[in-house]
Amino acid sequence: MSGTLSEAFLLADPMTLLMAIVLMLLAASGVWWSMAAGTTVAPRASMCLAVANALLAGGLGVDALGGQAPGLLRDGGGDLLAIGAFAVLRAGVPAIVGEPLAWRSALAVWLASAVLLVAVPLEGDMRWHVRAVHTALGALVAMSCVDAWRQLRRHVRPALSALLITPLFAVFVLLAARLLESFWQPAQTVDVRQLNEFNVIWLWMTLLVSLVLNATMACLIVMRLVLSIHRLTRRDPLTDVYNRRALSEAIAAEHLQLQRGRPYALVMIDMDRFKQLNDTLGHAAGDAALCRLVEALKPCVRDVDRLGRLGGEEFCTLLPLTDLVGALLVAERMRANLEESAFEWQGHPWQLTASFGIAEARPEDASADAVLGRADRAMYKAKAQGRNVVQADD
């Protein structure tokens, strides 16, 4: 039975497989068009994937028609459509995670390919034409793989990043195999419609990888939606720093490491005369002032630190692996940055300052709340000293 299935697999008609791939790509294009038009999640990426599937379907369709294709398409147009498909895919990969389209490099490869294909004759030995096409396709897919890997590593673990780019890498392998086939079997025809074992296996793999690739891209967009929702649950909607819940969790996790000799410090921050600013310039000005405060503080915050908003005009910074002296230096830089920052609302300048309270975690602290309490008391002492002051816990 297995021998019969294997024989049927290898004797499948390449034309039938080509048309199956074209129909699958057109169906995928329609789905991506619908997603681009009907959802707000990664619409640019969805549109790029719709165009890429449609262009690739067009390119393979021209291959299937062969000499019956219209003149412009018959003379290398189908190959340019296929290269254009992968150029659009390469441009759209960064958009899946919300980055700008990488259209410059994609366009450069497509234009270089167009010039090269014009220079390579379409008559006689077609292997150099195939090599030029698949080199361009491979380069675009390789760039897509690298870009996807870099972008994904910023959001998920390396192992998951590698798993998610596997379909793109599989496409690269298929293109490389087609390129190498023109070298290791130079006497064999390069026409994908020719019935031979290599073409049949290659077309079956192309069909499978195309399905998996589209499914993976859909998973990436869904993952982006999940990550966006997760981010919204942990971020302050106004200032985009950690919200109270997320910051409390980070401080609690850091406190668990205290008994293992890992110190940390907290910096409590309260904007001075915030109620007066709201009463004088309005609540919209108050919101803008809070955002300006965060902009002034962020240059002083390391990647391992956590800046969060506790509520109103009160913020807190978690400083892992930092003692009291180090926290004082950080807080003083924050204070100076904020004091030197310019803030103006509808033509009315306003001096922004804040009071800072510092506390270092101690081994005898039963919980993170004890450290927060000391930092809070130090901040109120800074207020009592005239504001725009950094005060350490006694």
TrEMBL record:
SMART domains: GGDEF. It catalyses: 2 GTP = 3',3'-c-di-GMP + 2 diphosphate. It is an enzyme of class 2 (transferase). It comes from Roseateles agri. Pfam families: GGDEF (PF00990). Residues 262-394 form the GGDEF domain. GO terms for molecular function: diguanylate cyclase activity. Keywords: Membrane, Nucleotidyltransferase, Transferase, Transmembrane, Transmembrane helix. The keyword rRNA processing does not apply. This is diguanylate cyclase. The chain crosses the membrane at residues 15-35, 47-68, 105-122, 161-180, 200-227. InterPro entries: Cyt_P450_sf (IPR036396), Diguanylate_Cyclase (IPR050469), GGDEF_dom (IPR000160), Nucleotide_cyclase (IPR029787), Rev_trsase/Diguanyl_cyclase (IPR043128). Its EC number is 2.7.7.65. It comes from the Bacteria. The keyword Ion transport does not apply.
